[in-house]
Amino acid sequence: MKRLVEDAKGLYAFGCATGAEARQATEYFIESATGVRENKQRYEQAEQAAQARPRTMGQGYMYGEPVVEND
Q: Cβ atoms within 10 A of the Cβ of 18, count?
């Protein structure tokens, strides 16, 4: 609920700052609810993708070839 209200307030403030015509409060809440729902779906997809990735068994990822210095 808190996220919904905060997003609706942000949409209203953005509209005021850009000079957009004010809308009914319900419209801001509907737009906010749509955004919250879409973000929840994105989060769930990211969680599923993370679960599908192979584990590194405590080892970090290495990018490129490791550099070995001989002194």
A: 7
